[in-house]
Structures are given as structure tokens and as C-alpha cells.
Write a structure and sequence with these properties.
This protein is mainly beta and 392 residues long. It has two helices and 30 strands. The termini are far apart. The chain binds fe (ii) ion.
Length: 392
């Protein structure tokens, strides 16, 4: 994101750096070999050191192949909480570029976790706490995006109360959209958020603590368990461009226009072959003849999924807080009958929703089958004997 550092660092990289006479272990964590963004961390003990090698458990994805290709709606509000922030994740949909999980953690886990094969972005619908990481402590609150680079060893600490999160994982990188950045990487003036809205870890947590610590590493499509003999948060200092951060959706400054603007104005992140967008409370299109909700559209090369967070989503019927719609490729979609008329003259929306558009088809997981509302596919149907007429 931008350069940041916490803790103690030697003045020159790759030189001797000691604590109480003991040489520290320098680790470079970087993307794209040694050419992408990187951070350099200084450990009390080698990050390679493991005491025991535990089991490897493949991640089993149970697919639901529906009998029909239609627009889909699922309701997640009634899904009970349970599990921890990692093992409690329920897969909803996936393709080779992104996986989408729902998790309502009810307990913390004693094990530390590291996703070794993908970046993660956690949208916190409900709840708050602290993401304790090797880079330091990162507080999070409702409606934060918590972006966790691959390779980050972490453990979620939960505040009391319900938690409901959406987790997107990708084998690629979660980045700010390229068009929001200048050639030096700084977010440009026209971007809907700035570096001040991006919050890195606030406090380094250096644990000088021998003991037994479980670590779960996601790699090669599964979870490998290890036992460490030293606390994994043994970093005395780090610096660089790779670290977890939060961006609260209410710091996204909506871009609005005289007539309707398309979803790219809501884009918040990009990944390989997908985007993540935030629909935020905002003033609506202000031309007297504007239609302030979306026109029908055929996203010829993408699938579009929206998670509804709060407010009244004016362009959809049957939506509740926690609902997800999936408008797959091959089928046009738009507001249901009557909604355009109802929207005319509206000046503001309080809707809050998170959208992911993928450029390759999504597969549904078995968890979706249990939440699926089959009536949605017919929600545009108006019987011929009862046509919808305009209101004036
Ligand atoms: Fe759409």
C-alpha cells in the first residue's frame, strides 16, 4: 500500500542487527520474486523453525450444481454463528480466482493461521475486535475491509457480541484499483479514498515467549499443521509495503453524477479477474429526468454477486440484510417491475452493499443450496393480465 514500519530496525538492510548481543533473523517477505512489494521483518528466532510437523488436511469443496441456470438469491441472516474465524468459514461460491466464505465466529482459536496461497479480504458486517498479526495489532470494527496479505501469520481476537463476516480469498493479490494510483503508487486526487483512510497495524506485539504454539498454514489446497516452540509474534521490527490494513467502507467517498453512473464508480479493490465494489449511502442522480437506479444490463463477461449489508436496496425486491444475489453471465438483469417508477424523484439512498464481479463463472458451494430462494428467478415475472403501468 505505502511504506510503513513498526519497531526497531537496523539503519541498513541485510546487515548485522542484534538484541542483547544475539543476532536477529532477517526475513524478506515479498511478492513477484524479489521485484514486487515486500516487507523485511527481524525475528528473535528463525521463522523456519518448527518443533513438530502435524497433519495435512485437504480443503474439500462440496459443489452444488443446480438443475437450472437462473438468477439466484440466498439469505444468510438466519445462519447461526459458530466455529472460529478460520475453521468456521462456510464456502458459498468460488472459481479459480476467488473464493467467497461466510463466517460468524463464536469463539477464538488457539492456533495461529497463515494463508500461504492467497490474499484475504474480510468484510466485517457485524462485530469488532483485533487482528493480532506478526506485523502488529490491527483493530477492526463493523464495516471494515480487513486486507491480509498472504504469508501473514495471524489470529483474530473478538470483542463480545455477534460477528458476521464475508471473507474473499484469492490466489492473486488484493490491490487498490490501478486507476486510483499514480505511477508512484500514491492514491490520486480523484480516488474515492486516500491513504489517510487506510489503517496499518497500530502496535507491534513482540512476544519473547518459549512454549508450544500451534500454527495452521494453508498451502497446496489444504491446511498443514505445525507446532512451534516459540511464539510466532517474535518480530522486533519490520518495514516495507506488505502488511495487513483496514479500510472502513464509510471512508469510501461515493462518486455521484447528474445521470446514472455504472458500478465501476463503486470499485474499492481489484483482484485477478474480479473486482470488489462498495455501494455506500449517497446522494442520487440529480437530473430532473434521471432514473436513479440501474438500467437493465447484460454483463456479457462477468458474474455479479452482491451482499446486502444495510439500508433499503432500491433496485431489488425480496432483499433482506444478509441476503446475497448472484446474477450470472448469460442473463440480463435489472430492477424488478415497479421499482423504476418507485425510484423516480428519489434524492438519496442509505443502501450499503458489497459486490464482487468475477470475469469467469462462479461455482456454487453446497452451503448455498441450503440458503437458496428459488422464487427469485421468477421475481421479474408480471402476469399478462396485470401489467405494471407507470405512476404518472
Ligand atoms: Fe448489476
Amino acid at each position: 500500500m505505502r511504506y510503513h514500519s513498526l519497531g526497531d530496525l537496523p539503519p541498513k538492510r541485510h546487515t548485522q542487527f542484534r538484541e542483547n548481543g544475539v543476532l536477529l533473523t532477517e526475513e524478506v517477505m515479498g511478492y513477484e520474486g524479489f521485484s514486487g512489494n515486500e516487507s523485511i521483518l527481524y525475528h528473535l528466532v528463525s521463522p523456519c523453525r518448527v518443533k513438530e510437523v502435524g497433519d495435512f488436511a485437504p480443503i474439500v469443496r462440496e459443489e452444488w450444481v443446480p438443475g437450472a441456470h437462473v438468477h439466484r438469491l440466498a439469505h444468510t441472516a438466519g445462519v447461526p454463528g459458530g466455529g472460529d474465524p478460520v475453521s468456521g468459514r462456510r464456502l458459498l461460491m468460488w472459481n479459480d480466482d476467488v473464493e467467497v466464505w461466510l463466517v460468524k465466529p463464536a469463539s477464538e482459536t488457539s492456533a495461529f493461521y497463515r494463508n500461504g496461497e492467497g490474499d484475504e479480504v474480510v468484510f466485517v458486517h457485524e462485530g469488532s475486535g483485533t487482528l493480532a498479526t506478526i506485523f502488529g495489532r490491527l483493530p477492526f470494527r463493523a464495516h471494515d475491509y480487513v486486507v491480509i496479505p498472504r504469508g501473514t501469520t495471524y489470529r483474530f481476537e473478538l470483542d463480545p457480541g455477534p460477528q458476521a463476516w464475508l471473507v474473499l480469498t484469492t490466489p492473486g493479490e488484493i490491490e487498490t484499483p490501478s486507476r486510483y494510483r499514480n505511477r508512484y503508487g500514491q492514491l490520486v486526487e480523484g480516488a474515492p479514498f486516500s491513504h489517510r483512510d487506510v489503517h496499518p497495524p497500530v502496535e507491534l506485539e513482540t512476544r519473547r515467549e518459549p512454549g508450544e504454539f500451534d500454527l495452521v498454514v494453508r498451502a497446496r489446497g489444504g491446511h498443514q499443521r505445525f507446532v512451534l516452540d516459540y511464539h510466532p509474534f517474535d518480530v522486533v521490527g519490520w518495514d516495507g509495503y506488505v502488511y495487513p490494513y483496514t479500510l472502513n467502507v464509510h471512508d469510501f467517498e461515493p462518486i455521484t453524477g447528474r445521470i446514472h453512473l455504472p458500478p465501476p464508480i463503486h470499485q474499492t479493490f481489484q483482484g485477478p479477474n474480479f473486482v470488489i465494489c462498495s455501494f455506500c449511502p449517497r446522494e442520487l442522480d440529480y437530473d430532473p429526468l434521471a432514473i436513479p437506479i440501474p438500467y437493465h444490463h447484460s454483463n456479457l463477461q462477468s458474474e455479479e454477486a452482491i451482499y446486502y449489508v444495510s439500508g433499503d436496496f432500491g433496485s431489488r425486491k425480496g432483499i433482506e440484510v444478509g441476503s446475497i444475489t448472484l446474477h450470472p453471465s448469460g442473463l440480463p438483469h435489472g430492477p424488478q417491475p415497479g421499482l423504476v417508477e418507485r425510484s423516480l424523484g428519489a434524492r438519496r439512498t442509505e443502501e450499503l452493499a458489497v459486490m464482487w464481479d468475477t470475469f469467469r463463472p462462479l461455482r456454487l458451494a453446497a452451503a448455498w443450496r441450503d440458503l437458496d430462494d428459488p422464487s427469485y428467478a421468477l421475481s421479474w415475472y408480471t402476469p399478462a393480465e396485470a401489467p405494471v403501468t407507470t405512476a404518472g
